[in-house]
Amino acid sequence: MKLPLHEYSALTFDCFGTLIDWETGILSVLRPWAKSAGVDASDDALLGAYARAESVQELETPGALYREVLRGVMHRIGDDLGGAVSADDAEALSVSIGEWPVFEDTPAALASLQERAKLIVVSNVDRMSFERAAQKLGVELDGLVTAEDVGAYKPDVRMFRAALEEVARHGVKPQQHLHVAQSMHHDIAPAGGLGIATCWIDRRAGRPGGATPESHGTTRPGWMFTTMRELAESASVSESAANAAQNGPDDDE
Known about the structure:
Helix 1 (about 20-35) packs across helix 2 and helix 2 (about 45-60) crosses helix 3 (about 65-80).
């Protein structure tokens, strides 16, 4: 399915899970913790515990900075899986966000998309935590909305109302705005519920589980790809076709 990017002047993105490989980053902390704590848990079990813990922690402490949220998440994971969590363990998860790797296709895809639209990130982080990750994206963003700015965490719709305000600040109409994200729970369902066009990046390629809670919403994305590369390539092809149709056939012989 080709994405008609020529219809959109602003793209908003989830960052962690969509542009940054947060599951690899999370496991880089949880695997050694589980081994030292004597917790026998698979990667899927560790990520599932993370998903449950983060969702509850963000709901209970919406005004906390994300690095503080992660400390609470680590303790909840310990309670969930039956392993002791020290202050050092909690701090290790808190500071790890800056080390989470970028998906290899992200920088080139963003660079290509930025030739056609404004790029804005809408992320469940604080600005200090995001700064370290931003250096890996390969582009200078046109805008940023964080949970720190809003005092709430996705899927709270206040995050997407703030996104709409940021898009409007760039002179872009709501119907020219597309939200791109990996999480149906955090992003696609709430954004779609506000009438924002959405594109799902299914980074797990159909595999269930992961660090994202299951979505119980009924909103479906307008487009779906498994990588940012696919999105950028589809947008490029669609734009070329739109330009050709607009210009009409060549009358020269």
